[in-house]
Amino acid sequence: DQQVKQNSPSLSVQEGRISILNCDYTNSMFDYFLWYKKYPAEGPTFLISISSIKDKNEDGRFTVFLNKSAKHLSLHIVPSQPGDSAVYFCAASGTGTYKYIFGTGTRLKVLA
Amino acid sequence: GAVVSQHPSWVICKSGTSVKIECRSLDFQATTMFWYRQFPKQSLMLMATSNEGSKATYEQGVEKDKFLINHASLTLSTLTVTSAHPEDSSFYICSALFLAGGLLQETQYFGPGTRLLVL
Predict the structure, then answer these.
(1) Which of B2, B46, B110 has its CB closest to that of A43?
(2) How many CA atoms lie within 13 A of A97 on its CB side?
(3) Is some CB atom of chain B closer than 8 A to the CB atom of A34?
């Protein structure tokens, strides 16, 4: 049972435009969410996180939105740059555990 | 800050041998580290949680006698793949839990991964 889902395996966006990556979860006990960026044959790099007490968190070009009622979060990257091309994973964890459940990833390609 | 290293970055070994992978938190202490495995084009699958000074906690389906984990210090955890077989070939990634303190929540920072190929 996939508790964290990224339904779009890939996404192509023109340089300078907005990239929107989506993530859905099923477990209502999740209260902390993160986004990681990963290049092939490398470990994931932490991008941004959000606690369930918030509905938005912003860091530079990256903004994460959380819709608890819909059990949905999204990562917005604006403006998108070719260097953003990578696989993006969302992750979730619940109160009392430090374990993360990862989504299946979305491959973002930013076209120059 | 929050840098995690992994060694070796890749290893090729013969079937039946054991391979040790090291995971180090370079600029912070980590009482908790995690070991993941990733198959091509798939997500990261948590194998086990490594706690300093105590036994590791393994996820369902992961053989503890096959994947030995030792967390001997606050900056080092090791994963030993014992009697490796071709099906153990994979990309192994560790992470270390960084506790920022205060109102900031914990975050896992990942090592660069180890590519294991068992012939």
Answers:
(1) B110
(2) 13
(3) yes
